[in-house]
């Protein structure tokens, strides 16, 4: 560079050659090995529908990796739509992912999460047929191992290929240069069909930490089997549905809503999705529930005597997944504290009607408001049975 030339911008020194997706597709279609970046580690993969390529990949694995299960490999999908195709194939005529699994998928994918989707033999066969997947390529103990990476180059590459790759961590193939991998691949009858897809920029280099592995059980539950880039507590948090009820003083309407909702959740029985219920007031703080609210809840078989009102905070809003305001005015107050929370703030009544404040009214009026709140909560929770005969 000339002494008089202006200095290069810092970012220009971090730019790698543009990813060559056409070359990657050529190599993959020929049964070759593609080395590619993800947000966690570099992957080394082959087309999931090429039996000879899958066999060569298996042969490349070190003994320690191979002992962890068939291939120790994972099916890499281009996007959530591709994952949904697997769910449809599992079920045969619709989404095969159970509600808890769907919640985890919606919250954590795309991202550094490896799923072990447990299936019966018929489901696995339908998935294989749908994808043209080589039997055993990405299967571990009756589960299909899969990922939907969030790395932009990886996602774009998979879209360009038009087919999933079954891949292992490049580290699992040993400390080999690209030339050494090509030589090893050639010795297995794969020719020189090895290509590395570049990350594009230094800030897109893999972080060097494996994905977190979560088993999706056939019963609808989850189990973290290997903690990695996503902490286990974040996985558990993704399976929680946190509901917050808000009124003015947090002494009658919202505490009754909290008690009713908690009871409905408990009586619904165990669920992979843990529903956590709380309440607060736009001007609450410290006092107990009104005597009439306590009596109305006692009439429904619930105990509100230990309730203490709380003032709504920004942290409560941030922590909640769903916030139900008793009136439109309460909803506006919530949004004044957290303008970005509009997607999760609603009036409790699905029809948009305010719930009148019973403060100063008779116990009968409180009971009427409580019954109204229960009907609305049932609709919000997806429960339609209005009977409370077990509290009679």
Structure description:
The structure is a single chain. The protein is an alpha/beta fold and 392 residues long. Strands 1, 2, 3, 4, 5, 6, 7, 8, 9 and 10 form a 10-stranded mixed β-sheet that branches. A 4-stranded parallel β-sheet has the order 12-11-13-14, with helices on both faces. It is elongated and about 85 Å long. Helix 1 packs across helix 7, helix 4 packs across helix 6 and helix 10 packs parallel to helix 11. It contains 14 helices and 14 strands. The longest helix is centred in the C-terminal third of the chain and has 19 residues. Helix 10 links the parallel strand 11 and strand 12.
Strand element count? 14
Any low-confidence stretches, pLDDT <50, length ≥5?
Answer: 5-13, 66-71, 384-392
Helix-strand makeup class: alpha/beta
Given the C-alpha coordinates, what overall shape results?
elongated
Order of helices and strands: HEEHHEHHEHEEHEHEEEHEHEHHEHEH
Count of alpha and pi helical runs: 14
**What share of residues is helical?**
25-40%
- Major sheet size, sense and barrel closure: 10 strands, mixed
SS strand fraction: 15-25%
Mean pLDDT across the residues is 90
Tell me the distance between the termini.
88 Å
Radius of gyration: 27 Å
Q: Features of this protein?
A:
four-stranded parallel sheet, alpha/beta, 392 residues, elongated, ten-stranded mixed sheet, 14 helices
Brief sketch in words of this structure:
The chain contains 14 helices and 14 strands.
How are the elements arranged and paired?
Layout (H helix, E strand, L loop, with lengths): L20 H9 L3 E4 L6 E5 L3 H10 L2 H4 L7 E3 L3 H12 L7 H10 L4 E6 L2 H11 L7 E2 L2 E5 L4 H10 L3 E5 L8 H10 L6 E3 L15 E5 L5 E5 L5 H7 L1 E8 L5 H16 L5 E8 L9 H9 L14 H6 L2 E4 L2 H10 L7 E3 L15 H19 L11
Parallel strand pairs: 1-8, 3-6, 4-9, 11-12, 11-13, 13-14
Antiparallel strand pairs: 1-2, 2-7, 3-7, 4-6, 5-6, 9-10
Helix pairs in contact: 1-7, 4-6, 10-11, 10-14, 11-14
